[in-house]
Amino acid sequence: MDNTDQQKFSETTLHTEPVYQGRVISLQVETVRLPNGETAKREIVKHPGAVAVLALLNDKMLVVEQYRKPLGKSQVEIPAGKLEPGEDLLEAAARELEEETGYRCDSLRHLSSFYTSPGFCDEILHLYVAEQLSKGTVHLDDDEFLECEAITLEEAQQLIKQQKISDAKTIAAVYAWQIYKLTGSFPA
Q: Where is the Nudix hydrolase domain (predicted)?
């Protein structure tokens, strides 16, 4: 798809109404002009972006289990967290890895960046792989309760089937790890 194809679908913002400003997200309603000249409303969640880490230790993946209130259940996920304003992506990934798992890494490599829910949110998530791990110190936030565990690829696949792993970033990480194990390199 070239630039002219993208332009034929673009929407022009006519008015923005802030609705909510929170600690992590904000919500705004935009009135837009559609490609056909009509107008419509768009509810948009603004998010600072996040990092996530596929951390490999002795042929196992580090995961954290924590309760996710929007889902009403506990989930098993790779370590992840939101970006602070102006924060370097590599530093953020290293920070989140140690804060949630208690491990540091000598090597961080970018795998992919993707939008989590582009229909209503601008959050972009940067996925990294961490290898050559060494013990550090867990530093959980005051409102953060989780447990860290190392699981095999087969255990991760089983957790996906059981929907205990059901978030996009962790599923993407598991599939990237599976490709790595099959081919010897991570997908480009």
A: 45-180
- Say if residues 48 and 160 touch (Cβ distance below 8 Å): no
Domain that holds residue 38: 3-46
Q: Which residues of 121-149 are buried (b: 16+ CB within 10 A; e: fewer)?
A: bebebbbbbbeebeeeeeeeeeeeebebe
In a domain, 157, yes or no: yes
Which pLDDT band holds residue 60 (cuts at 50, 70, 90)? very high
Other CB atoms closer than 10 Å to residue 101's CB: what's the count?
26
pTM above 0.85, yes or no: yes
| Count of domains observed in the chain | 2
DSSP alpha helix (H) spans, 39-186: 89-101, 153-161, 168-183
